[in-house]
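Sat 14:20. Reprocessing the chain from the morning session after the first attempt stalled halfway. Input below, unchanged.
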Amino acid sequence: MEVPTIARRTSWTGGKVQERLRRLNLITTVPPLALVGVFLLLVSARSGWHVVIQVVGLLAALATAERWTAGDYLRVARPSLVVTAVVWLAGSLTDDTAAFFGLSVVGSYLIPPLPRRRLAALAGLTVLIAGLGAANVLVHDDRIGWRLFQFAAVPAAATLVSTAFMFASQRFFDLIAELEQSRERDADLAVTRERVRFASDLHDIQGHTLHVVKLKVALAEKLLDREPDRAREELREVHELVGDTIVQTRELAHAQRRLNLSAELENAKNLFEAAGIHVRVTRKSEVDATAGDLLGQVLRETTTNILRHAEARHVGITLTRRGIAIVNDGAPDTGPLELGGLAVLRQRLAEHGAELEVSHSGGRFRTAAAFPAPKEARR
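Finished this time. Tokens:
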């Protein structure tokens, strides 16, 4: 029977998070193993030979544990398995009941990371420890039942317990690693979202400006011969617009950009009138200052869409305390109901609790954004 592979890391090194995990593993595994090994040495060693073999086994176990925290323990654990097996055999032949400790620890580190057949490996390790311990009866023929219990049953049971503990321990640290990885991914995602937001804002600034410049330059070209003063005025406005765009781009780069709804409204009127579009603005109330920034973004994006994608002759803009609605004619009968910029803007508004609605009917396109009324006002 195979046990399903548990989530694990092949290495806990590299990076600040992995280094913290390595230190945590060192603190929680190596000192307890050393303390247990020293305790067994003090209570069970009855000769200098016993001290030597137990120290060798303990050092092999500690070396495996230390390398386990670094993720490259296999190259140490395999030779340590041979060393500790020899140590346990020597201990069983010399009546040292604690010499199995090193082999039990090294084996328990080797089994949990196996991708398959871990139960078979655990059974094999248990049989190995019991078999090496049973060698004690080959040189001591008294109290055979008690000796088999001491040197075969107890070490085998201790190995099962230590391996079960290692399964739980490794799973625990894998969960910690996954949690840290999740936090890192969340941080990366936050950075990505901020980059997308920045790119969207930059597109709003540059795309809007370039389209306006194109319109005004085309208008100045038409007026150059008939009305040179008017053409000069249009070019002056282009110069000012480019300068304002440079300022807005700098503010965006330093996270200082905020749209002024009144300025955006005046700019939209000028653009529509320059394109021969009649504009009607209806103010039902003064716009709440807390909503002005995002409503200005809605107005700017909608203005750009109308100039680019519609053959409008009339545009109506209605302002309420916490909302704005823009209606234009000349919308094509075919094509997507929502433009890409509006979809991005809808998500941005939703993050602030606002809603963006668009509708298309009878050649008229309506874009409306509204913030919910404050709780105090609804009571």
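The CA atoms of residues 301 and 341 lie 7 Å apart.
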